[in-house]
Amino acid sequence: MKVYATYNIKGGVGKTTTAVNLAYLAAASGRRTLLWDLDPQAAATFLFRVKPRVKGGSRGLVSGKRPVDDAVKATDFDDLDLLPADFSYRNMDLELDDMKKRTARLDQLLSAVDQDYDVVFLDCPPSVSLVSENVLRAADVLLVPLIPATLSLRTYAQLTAFVADTPKPRPQLMAFFSMADRRKRLHCEVIDTVSRDDVRVADTVIPSLALIEQMTERRAPVPAFAPRSRAARYYEQLWAEVRDGS
Amino acid sequence: MLETHTFDVEAVYKVLASAFEVCAGKPRVVRRTVLDTFDRRLERSGQRLQLVAEAGADRLELVQDGETPVTALAGARTRWPAMADSLPDGALKDRVARACGIRALLIIDQCRRLVRRAELRNADGKIVARLDVDEPADGTAAPVIAVRPLRGYRKAADRARQLVSTVLEPAADEPTAPDATGASVVDPESPARLLLATELADFLQEVRVNLPGTIGDIDTEFLHDIRVAVRRTRSLLKLGRPALPPHLRETWEPRFKWLGDLTTPVRDLDVYQLGLPEMTGWLLAASAADLEPFQAYLAERRAVERRTLLRALRGARLRRLLDDWAGELSALADSARSADGAAWSAGALARANVTRAHRRVVRGGTAISDSSPPEALHLLRKRCKELRYALEMFAPVLEGAQVAKAIKDLKMLQDVLGRFQDSEVQRTTLRGFAHEMAADRAPAEALLAMGELMGHLHAEQRRARAEFATVFASYIRPRSSRRMAGLLGSNGEAAG
Prior knowledge:
The structure holds two protein chains of two kinds.
Chain A lengths: L1 E5 L8 H14 L4 E5 L5 H5 L9 H7 L4 H4 L1 E2 L5 E4 L8 H6 L7 H7 L7 E5 L6 H9 L2 E6 L3 H16 L6 E9 L4 H9 L7 E7 L2 H4 L1 H4 L3 H4 L4 H16 L1
Parallel strand pairs in A: 1-5, 1-6, 2-4, 2-5, 6-7, 7-8
Antiparallel strand pairs in A: 3-4
Chain B lengths: L1 E5 L2 H8 L4 E4 L3 E9 L4 H4 L2 E8 L2 E8 L5 E4 L17 H10 L5 E16 L5 E10 L7 E6 L4 H12 L3 E2 L21 H24 L4 H20 L6 H35 L11 H22 L2 H20 L10 H21 L7 H20 L6 H40 L4 H32 L2 H11 L8
Antiparallel strand pairs in B: 1-9, 1-10, 2-7, 3-4, 3-7, 4-5, 5-6, 7-8, 8-9
Helix pairs in contact in B: 5-6, 5-9, 5-10, 6-7, 6-11, 7-8, 10-11, 11-12, 12-13, 12-14
């Protein structure tokens, strides 16, 4: 089972759209896929039209009283399941803090579904917290969407340092530019000049497109409602890079 | 859940619309290939495995009543029959492998269906269940309707099923399911020859149906089932001697002995090959890789023995044996009404055989002490087998529940004697294999590993020997004896 996490300290950078679209593409290629919406804002859960509710809430899941596979919901798409968000996830840090191996708990919980899925995506809330530390421990690959701006690169540097400071095993880091607007000079400069020596940055750049924004209206992944669109093609390219490069 | 009914699809959609938003798709032609083992292990475990070819894509689908189907992309085209190992890795493979064990998957049925699929959505527009209306592409049979639950939405699927059931009418020509118990009751006063002829004909049929799978080497169980049928035939010829014409003993007992012996070498090697993964777990000092030359030796020997077996299975001698035997059984059934043939009733023969076999087990077991040689336990094992066969074969004229209990009592004793004897036989065979491998300059590591296996078998035999006294004491406890007396009725008597 391969675990990918879409993560960034900053919010609004395209974590959820990436997680939803890549999870859809993984499932469409025949991989049994689970997406865990860890963000109490429940955007991924909303996109799949699932109610943002988990019986027993964050405490039930983290304590193990509510088995992970009991809380899983099928999405409308074959081979793609969702572990929905719940507003109580806002307290997940506190619940994790009460556990014995407090930074390895999510990893332990995921091991219970190891045989059920080939791929897991973790859609993470934008923060540096105990949840993040658990994500770093559980994930094989950290997918980091970056808006092509100077501040984003600075945040990415902070994130790289944060990952480097965490105990092993550490996830592989893979950044990619998201919400890029080629009409903006700064965006172009950042994309063209970013050093790929120290950090792994995907060749695929996800542009800022109206179709991607429409996901919230259509409540579905882009490749599901617009399979021949440019947006879908970009996500397919990104998934191919992620899949082959990790 | 699949149900065959007559119904109007529009009426089904209409009733579902009271609780769901129904989105009906266009009908599509789907080719379904149903896969199962020869002895229908998936079906018996309530599961159905299908290879579904639809819109240019092949997927495997495992369905269990009331559960979300488990699916997998079919991947590279598999040539059936094939073992579950050849399925794509994942939950579907794990479940199928668990149910099928050592049996191969075969094509059981193939059909083209016209499928009308509908999505049932809730108020958020989320699909909460799917509905398939599935009918033969040529329209020759009644359609089948299935509500497919989605993980996490069981209640919605239950509600959909409930609604669908309100508009279904049972199909007028719905076939009656065959009797699942398979147990038939025979009048104990009927001629014994009739019962014997019927059972022997069943065993003959068992041999015939398992021949193609044995010749094709689909899996090891085909040969095993032939051997069981032959063994039962031989036992029944022996048990039925008082009621059977004398020439059967002279003519047929040797002919079936030939057939049984013919299948022994390959079966013995199959037992080793199947047991090798477990045997590998016995190793303490040696590693699994050390046994690889042994594995290769077994495969080589099996290939040689199989060629001999194949020649015989395809030969005229076996064909003549089976054809002559069918004619003989037909004559036997016809003779059942003659004065000579009706001398023994089925009930009397059953009681005489079970009484005798039980007495021999009790006497044989009681005579065994701690100093008895292994041969005494081997003889007792044979006597237990005779009793087991007598109970099983005469079950139709004995009281069913009592027979089941008597077999259960006997089984523990058979298990301990089986472990004792199998360990002995396996050690002897292993020693023979080791000599042959040494002559072929097998690596020392392989022979040392085989030595470890012999050590394990020796310890196992000692454990079984130590358990024997307790298990036998339990077998002859008053409750078992009373049970046997009850089974044999007023005309029989249980030894004790």
